[in-house]
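Please study the protein below:
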Amino acid sequence: MQEQKSTKHPAAGLLIPIHLFEKDNKCFNIQSEWTASQVVAFKINKLTTTEGSSSTSSNNNNYALFEMIRKGQLERRIGANESIKSIVLGRWLEWEEFQDNYLLLKNDSNPFQPQSGRAFADDLKISEPDSKSFKSSSLRIEEGTRVCLYSKNLKKLNEWKVDEMIWFIGAEIERKCPFPFALTFFVSTEKRAAKCLGKLPGYCVAFKDEVQRHQWLNCICLNQSEYLPQPLIQI
């Protein structure tokens, strides 16, 4: 009976470090069972009350928790109800070089704006996993459940379920993106793109401007099943 009990709760009481504002600046520990919204609420409340940080209180509505991978080159705003355990003790353990991954609480320079979304992104450049070659393409969210990839001549090349995709802002330097604003995504059901493995993992999408990238990412978040209409934290 004792063995069954310990197996059921292997991570009880496990503490996970969170970096504050920037890597290796100030770290604080939280329970692995906490969600992103609990982490943000806990630390912002402590900063505004115990530590009396006026600069933090003036911008606290824009703070969020981020997943940083590939030595900080790729970042993802963690969903409000996502548990830290599901990331650190789940997905990361299946990825290479997860020792360089970390969680960062910082100001969100591109907060989620559901009213500013666009389900079609054209004039893009996309490279496949392990490739530096970019091809002219376009992306479209169809029926709110699928992301479809089209060629320059609007021929459908591929499609993925929105809820099976994980999107990160940024691209690795080695990829040499043709445009400055990029996203990198992984697909949980596609063998070659399910994990962050290899030299150039995931699909890389290069946008010509930041507005287009932000509108596309807003639309992705809006169509994911875990989407919540309320902001990550309200103060």
